[in-house]
Amino acid sequence: MFANVAERAERQPVLAVSTVIFSLRDDERTGRKSLWLPLVRRTREPFRGQWALPGGPLGPRDSLVDTAANNLRDTTGLVPRYLEQLYAFGDMDRSPTRRVVSIVYWALVREDDDHNTATAANSELLDDPNVAWFRADDPEVLANLAFDHRDIIEYALWRLRNKVEYGSIAHRLLGERFTLAQVREVYEAVLDKALDPANFRRQLRTAANIEETDEFLSGGKHRPPRLYRYTGSTTHPLESENIS
Amino acid sequence: MFANVAERAERQPVLAVSTVIFSLRDDERTGRKSLWLPLVRRTREPFRGQWALPGGPLGPRDSLVDTAANNLRDTTGLVPRYLEQLYAFGDMDRSPTRRVVSIVYWALVREDDDHNTATAANSELLDDPNVAWFRADDPEVLANLAFDHRDIIEYALWRLRNKVEYGSIAHRLLGERFTLAQVREVYEAVLDKALDPANFRRQLRTAANIEETDEFLSGGKHRPPRLYRYTGSTTHPLESENIS
User: What is the pLDDT of residues B95-136, one digit of tens each?
Assistant: First the structure.
């Protein structure tokens, strides 16, 4: 199974496309929301039986982003509205059998999205024992992933914590309208710690690109909370690709 | 020369690595500094005779970033201290002969760097008529580039204008210490417009991650200007790869 180094080096690298999909879900362990992601159990060598990011070889007639979307739909039933390119991973030793360069896409999806699309697109996938959602920072899961997929997920989490505007993250994980309490849940999930609600509201008002709407959350509450919305940002078309 | 669509689609894609290198240079047209980049004239089909980004196929024993660095050194004599991954371009029709997926790296280099390294590493390259520096936004140059290299350069310029901290840009284009006037020249080059010095100083103090040093620019001036430095940022190792 293991090609020797010289042989391996001479062969053309395989080009693969993988995806990291984050969604917000309840976490019984902490009582807060946390970030979850879908993984697929490998049914072939290398790393047979281990969990891996959804992915596969570049489709000969598909763009990079369409390859990512098709594979994601086929393996997990998920159809996110957009995918963003995360990074290309190409170290020599990523796979024991052959050099693989993986171009990784990522997306944030709403909890209702992932349920709906999974149900609608491919209901039998819901019972597939080789597809499951995991907490994105579960140490046991991360330690046993195939290939360098642990590094990939940890880099995606780092990007989420350090680089992206929180207004945009909230918009993508929550939808068009959200309460400040929901935005706090997003922050708590991404940072993995509880935040003081009053301090958080004060800081958020001056920082994130979020603005009040005239709407309030409907429901049975005595005093329904106000809804906010994301005010948008400058995103290049290449950074948030629509799936064709 | 042109494979038909079906044939082309069946063949394995070629993996290439290209680089976009920006440097600040005097621009006689405007009297300000502007962004320049090195291009290499193609000596083979496709696009023979047209200018292109320095690049080549993935080295069988090299990482992605080392492939970028080796090719850059061999074609232009440039040895930047770091390279950052910009984006992977993989559309079907990028090359008329065969599908090519290009992973593009980029860097900002100091003017003295590019001269020194070119001289030291490979002095004959300085006389090579197939290597030259161009203004990064020269419409005539952009209109006649090989492949989709115009799109790549325009995306890199967009990233520079929209995404990166200016403190970091100044640090990379200017070095460890710089005056506020030099930082203004960087802004003017990136935005391609003259800025009011007094307004600029006021805004810069509150915005960019730049701090005063106790040093002043040496030279013959009556009142030498103060030197500033970049205060750093959170950069993931993957986002600024050192070349091995």
Answer: 998 899 999 999 988 876 655 454 444 445 567 899 999 999
Q: Is B36 exposed, middle or buried (0-12, 13-18, 19+ CB in 10 A)?
A: buried
**What does residue B93 show for φ and ψ, rounded to 5 degrees?**
-105, 30
Question: Can you list the domains of chain B with their CATH numbers?
Answer: 5-164 (3.90.79.10), 166-230 (1.10.10.10)
Cα–Cα dist B85/B87, whole Å? 6
Q: Do A151 and A159 touch, CB atoms closer than 8 A?
A: no
Task: Answer whether A129 touches B (CB < 8 Å).
Answer: no
The C-alpha angle A166, A186, A128, rounded to 5 degrees, equals 120
- Please state the ipTM of this predicted complex: 0.84
Q: Which of B4, B20, B61 to mutate to test the interface with A (most CBs of A within 10 A)?
A: B61
What pLDDT score was predicted for residue B9?
46
Beta carbons of B10 and A60 less than 8 Å apart: yes
Q: Is the pLDDT of residue A113 over 80?
A: no
Alpha carbon distance A81, A55 (integer Å): 18
Q: What is the pLDDT of residues A129-165, one digit of tens each?
A: 999 999 999 999 999 999 999 999 999 999 888 765 6
| pLDDT at residue B113 in the model | 62
Q: Report the distance separating Cα B133 and Cα B207, nearest Å.
A: 32
Is the CB of B191 inside 8 Å of chain A's CB atoms? Answer: no
> What is the arithmetic mean of pLDDT over A191-196?
89
Residue numbers in A near B101 (CB within 8 A): 15, 58, 64, 103
User: In a mutagenesis test of the A interface, which of B58, B83, B86, B165 is the best target, namely the one with the most A β-carbons within 10 Å?
Assistant: B58
The helix-helix angle for A149-162 and A180-191 (nearest 10°) equals 140
Residues of A in contact with B11 (CB under 8 A): 60
Take residue B162 and report the two structure tokens written for it: 């929209």
Distances (CA, A) of A70 to A51, A75, B20: 19, 9, 31
Span B212-228, pLDDT tens digits:
899 998 876 678 899 99
pLDDT at A9: 46
